[in-house]
């Protein structure tokens, strides 16, 4: 469902990885592509991983992280698409297993039933990505139609600098 101004609504789910500090770049790119954006952060991500006041100013909406109270109106319209960036090991595994213990994961679990496109940019260290449960999670989510960007470990390269996190790739993956 589009917003009253006609723009489609994108949920940006932010997990607790260090690269989240730059999530404003994704929001800016999404707005340039004419998405209206609402951010849903995991509770850990909300705790110092990015500048929440700046993101709220950028989107013009409060960041969601906890469930609303019964009887309160839904703070965001339903999503037309969902992006998870950065996606942590923890959130990917919980999502695949259907363990909806945060609003962020519960929202992701619902996307399958809603049938909206979902794009994910994982930020997971190679040592964690090798875990069989993570590989099973990727297989399961891909089979559900979830679109993944290339693996990104967050580790510095040989020259000591971190490769660029491909924020705009998330939007490209939505097609
Ligand atoms: C500074 C810092 C950086 C982290 N970076 C990552 C990361 O890049 N990827 C990851 O999967 N976990 C990372 N973690 C661990 C997660 O924050 C931790 O697993 C957390 O429980 C994830 O919660 P969430 O999935 O609900 O956001 C990091 C933790 C800290 C303290």
> Helix count, per DSSP?
7
| Small molecules (ligands, ions, cofactors) in the structure | flavin mononucleotide
Largest sheet strand order: 2-1-3-4-5
Structural class assignment: alpha/beta
Percentage of residues in helical conformation: 25-40%
Q: Given the C-alpha coordinates, what overall shape results?
A: globular
Stretches where pLDDT is under 50 for at least 5 consecutive residues are none
Tally of DSSP β-strands: 5
Distance between the termini: 17 Å
Mean pLDDT: 96
Proportion of strand residues:
5-15%
Work out the oligomeric state of the chains in this entry.
Answer: single chain
Biggest sheet details: 5 strands, parallel
Elements, N to C (H/E): EHEHEHHEHHEH
Radius of gyration computed on alpha carbons = 15 Å
């Amino acid at each position: 469902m589009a917003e009253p101004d006609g723009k489609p609504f994108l949920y940006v789910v932010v997990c607790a990885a260090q690269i989240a500090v730059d999530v404003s770049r994704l929001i800016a790119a999404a707005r340039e592509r004419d998405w209206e954006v609402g951010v849903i952060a995991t509770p850990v991500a909300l705790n110092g991983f990015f500048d929440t006041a700046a993101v709220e100013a950028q989107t013009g909406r409060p960041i969601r992280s906890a469930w609303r109270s019964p009887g309160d109106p839904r703070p965001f319209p339903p999503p037309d698409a969902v992006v998870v960036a950065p996606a942590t090991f923890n959130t990917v595994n919980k999502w695949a297993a259907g363990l909806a213990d945060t609003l962020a994961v519960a929202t992701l679990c619902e996307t399958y039933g809603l049938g909206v496109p979902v794009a994910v940019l994982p930020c997971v260290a190679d040592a964690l990505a090798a875990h069989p449960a993570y590989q099973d999670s990727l297989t399961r989510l891909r089979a559900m139609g979830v679109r993944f960007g290339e693996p990104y470990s967050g580790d510095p390269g040989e020259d000591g600098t971190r490769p660029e996190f491909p924020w705009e790739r998330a939007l490209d993956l939505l097609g």
